[in-house]
Write a structure and sequence with these properties.
alpha+beta, 3 strands, 33% strand
Length: 86
């Protein structure tokens, strides 16, 4: 069950990807968790980076860094989607 990455509804929409991931997991969606953490590394323009980790049943399945939590969530959700469903 793959979602085309050129889906126009998905462009710059981390909530879309989190929702698609949860929907695809169906009854197992309650095993999906995410958390955010501040990262000591700085972005090239001096902004602090935020990390997002997505876990499924206690196992890390996706992670990403972003300047915003939404940016990090999008990357981590896509990585988790690929790990769990592709």
């Amino acid at each position: 069950m793959a979602i085309p990455l050129n889906n126009p509804a998905a462009d710059n929409s981390p909530i879309y990807w989190w929702g698609e991931l949860c929907t695809a997991l169906g009854d197992d969606c309650h095993l999906l968790t995410r958390y955010f953490e501040n990262v000591d590394d700085l972005h090239y323009d001096g902004e602090r980076l935020i990390g997002c980790v997505v876990m499924f049943d206690g196992v890390e399945v996706g992670s990403a860094l972003g300047v915003t939590s939404l940016q990090a969530l999008q990357g981590a959700s896509l990585e988790a989607y690929e790990a769990l469903l592709d």
